[in-house]
Design a protein that fits this description.
The chain has 165 residues and is mostly helical. The chain has 6 helices and no strands. The chain crosses the membrane at residues 12-35, 56-79, 94-113, 140-163.
C-alpha cells in the first residue's frame, strides 16, 4: 500500500514539475519570441494577459512540487526525524532542494513576475517603440530575461540535486 502511494505521489510530483519548469521555459523561450511577430500594441496586450494568467498557475504548480517533494522525503520517504536532515546525505540534499525550490518559486513569483509586469506597464518605452525607437524596450526585455534566468538556473540546480538522490 505505501509503495503504491509513493509511486502515485512520485508520478504526481514529476508531472507537476514538468508543468512548472516546462511552462516557465515555454513562455520564456517560445511564446515571448513568437510574440515579437505581433505589432507592439498587440504584443503588449498579449504578454500582459499571458503573464497575469500564467502567474497563478506557476505558483500553484510550484507549491504542488514542493508539497509532493516534502511528502516523498518524509511521510513516504526515509526522513523520520529532524536529525535525518543534517546527519544523512539524503537529508542534506533534501533540505538543499527544498530551499532551492522555495527560492525559485519566490524569485519567479515576486521578482521575475514584477519585473516583467513593470516593463509591460511602462508607457514611456512602449510609446518610444511605437515610434520605431525600440532600444529602451529591447534593453528592458533583455534585463527581464536575465532576471528570469535566475529561475532557470534554479531549476537546473534542483534537477541536479534530484538526480543525485
Amino acid at each position: 500500500m505505501i509503495w503504491t502511494m509513493y509511486q502515485t505521489v512520485l508520478w504526481l510530483h514529476i508531472v507537476i514539475a514538468i508543468l512548472w519548469v516546462g511552462g516557465v521555459m515555454f513562455v520564456g523561450w517560445a511564446v515571448y519570441p513568437a510574440s515579437n511577430k505581433l505589432d507592439r500594441a498587440q504584443q503588449r496586450t498579449f504578454l500582459t494577459a499571458l503573464m497575469k494568467h500564467t502567474h497563478w498557475l506557476f505558483i500553484i504548480e510550484g507549491i504542488g512540487v514542493i508539497f509532493t517533494g516534502i511528502l516523498l522525503g518524509t511521510v513516504l520517504g526515509p526522513i523520520d526525524q529532524w536529525s535525518d536532515l543534517y546527519t544523512t546525505m539524503y537529508g542534506r540534499k533534501f533540505i538543499a532542494a527544498f530551499f532551492l525550490a522555495v527560492f525559485v518559486l519566490l524569485w519567479g513569483s515576486l521578482i521575475g513576475f514584477r519585473k516583467t509586469m513593470n516593463v509591460l506597464e511602462d508607457n514611456t518605452i512602449w510609446n518610444l517603440a511605437k515610434k520605431d525607437m525600440c532600444t529602451p524596450l529591447n534593453r528592458a526585455f533583455r534585463f527581464t530575461a536575465l532576471v528570469a534566468g535566475v529561475e532557470v538556473i534554479g531549476f537546473l540546480g534542483i534537477i541536479a540535486l534530484m538526480l543525485q538522490i
